[in-house]
Amino acid sequence: MSVLEDLAMAVGPKHVLAGEAAKDDYHHDESLTVPAVCPLAVVLPGSTEELSGVLAAASRHRVAVTARGSGTGMSGACTPVDGGIVVSFERMSRIIEIDQANHVAVVQAGVQLDQLDSALAPLGLMYPVYPGEYSASLGGNVATNAGGMRAVRYGVTRHQVVGIRCGGKVAKLSSGYDLTQLIAGSEGTLALVTLAYLRLYPRPAFNATLLAPFSTLEAVAAAVPTVVGSGIGPSILEYVDMLTMAAMTAHSGIDLGVADEIRSTALAYLVVGLEARSETRLEEDAEAMAELLAKAGAMEVYVLPPGSAVQLIEAREKAFWVAKANGADDVLDVVVPRAAIPAFMAAVAEVASSTGSLLPGCGHAGDGNVHLAVFQPDPETRHEVERRVFEAGLTLGGAISGEHGIGRAKRDLFLELEDPAKVELMRRLKAAFDPLGILNPGVTL
Amino acid sequence: MSVLEDLAMAVGPKHVLAGEAAKDDYHHDESLTVPAVCPLAVVLPGSTEELSGVLAAASRHRVAVTARGSGTGMSGACTPVDGGIVVSFERMSRIIEIDQANHVAVVQAGVQLDQLDSALAPLGLMYPVYPGEYSASLGGNVATNAGGMRAVRYGVTRHQVVGIRCGGKVAKLSSGYDLTQLIAGSEGTLALVTLAYLRLYPRPAFNATLLAPFSTLEAVAAAVPTVVGSGIGPSILEYVDMLTMAAMTAHSGIDLGVADEIRSTALAYLVVGLEARSETRLEEDAEAMAELLAKAGAMEVYVLPPGSAVQLIEAREKAFWVAKANGADDVLDVVVPRAAIPAFMAAVAEVASSTGSLLPGCGHAGDGNVHLAVFQPDPETRHEVERRVFEAGLTLGGAISGEHGIGRAKRDLFLELEDPAKVELMRRLKAAFDPLGILNPGVTL
Hints:
Chain A has 445 residues and is of the alpha+beta class.
């Protein structure tokens, strides 16, 4: 039996898309550097049982398997292997349960963030991970350990996933190895996630957004530990540099009410989100935060009206698209200890000037997660730029990626820069899960 | 060269304790059921380099290696193997760094919780995991993924460990498999933890403790989801059943001011800890919580004076010792989804009555983590009791242990009740780390 026939046996012929039917969308994700690849077929399982059949067929034929959610990833982890198959979860997109008593949602891998949010909002609950793209799937978020702006308060996907078949609705467990945590962030190289148990939180009733321009990026970065240490517990703590802010506001047409003389001299901004259970507390917190930011050297502190606040957060979430529209050649998301942001940014400035590149950025300052757009059209120079930026992050005790993952995009530099003993151990772990090496070969390892 | 000579080469002869020098304390932990074993030797490395030498020697001689912190574990995970060695971390007990800007402590494995707390308190910081025994070591806490009362707000050890050599001071990362999370909770079977990077938090300025008696255990359990869902965010949420409360107060001589007519009819208590940044907020929260508890059916709500509150929390932390002093034969810590506590406790009552056992308890209600003392002297009947209690927990979507770990104490029942496919995968993962099988054989797997 041919591979395609075998796959058709597992999921039914109309759920195996080959040739023309395996549309362009399935050939890539949002990475700016990983080339699109047309797979042998796109397979759409409707259940875990059907997926088991697909994996059995792939094992028999030694065909590479790449899992795909909504394709909103940034590192090519769902870009297919030539001759391999894509497993797409669009038929497994059911919210199985929202368990209000245990604050747990049980979702199939193909459920999208906006779909889950629509179901949670009427119940006064929320799932706190917003990686900037609401059409992202939960399966993809688990596979890449997605982050986003609210991680400074709630943590990243890893902190919300309490189970994926293994695990479950329990708040904690110490019963054998934590396979859930090992699989989270493994980018489809160890297992395919079909079902996730996710922690839910009470939806905060009141929100405010503060915007604080600073005269230098160093001043912004220096303010961050003070904000985190204050105990006020911001839900968002983002920095945006001048270039990125200008591009963002121009692209979305927001007027944030920042006075001209400040806008022309501010080199960076801090965006601080606050949330509270009562209006009084929110006001108190906003006042305390404004005072603290002023003391930390903000040129001014604006409490944004709700409309502009929403626009600014949306614009920040779309910063990647602005960078892309402006012709960025790549996007990085190095993470460093948050107090090391100034040192890291100094290193980045040095790399930019010495290579004639432009590296504007913004990022999750509270997490030390710096997003840089790379404007450097020459591939060799760009490789050099990225290697030096990654090295600077690693030297400061950081890592190559805080939330985008390694995928195919950063695999070479990951293998070049990572401790070889750790890479060897990772390979042994992969072999324990995937002895045939058919799960997303060429991703991460 | 003999094993002992080889070990002496690695750490110096005076740091290899054999025969009489390997004192009784090294033969066991606090498990009530795992028999003490005298090891071939106790080895005290002074650095990671020395430990590497120890492991190389153990590999050459195929000698089992058991890591030991303070020996406060509850499942025999640091009880030696006959003929094996114990690696004890008392010479590696230095706080390397308290990084205030990044809210991270870097500690050697032998650092004790009370030692870390003394260093943090003057800085207005805290490490939030208190597994009831302040002499516990951080290395041991990481190895067992220790929990404790504050997990309902802050999470367990797993949520605080951002690195153990691998990883580091970063708030998140998505760069390869998360080895830190795999090793956390692996009870010394995959690797020895020498150094941990731990998240720190602002030390809350104001605390209050509420005590609410309920007429039934079911009523207590039913109140828990309401408390968690309120958004007030308690830092402690414990239930204590009547028998345990009576034993605890008698043992520590506290007078909680509970009226006689209530004490004689209350079958269970909820203990709620609150913390806040200001006195006003604490008072508001305490009032809101008291109202909520009253609505949920509390017979009365007491806001404890600071002295009694401290005594009660300490008594709760010592509940294990009270059970032991009263002759308990074992202690379990099953975890279930928190809304399933009533169903679980009903099953426990059924097991108790049908086997003529006494199973009083208390536990981390907010986490669904139920601690049961087992009074059943007959080993065979006790095995049956524990099997049925574990099965009840697993059927409700829970796990055998929420924080004590599997160790040697619950290994047989773990292997009997756990999914064989998961056990097989765990064995392959262990082989990837420990191909010779010398790391804590007989623990967990």
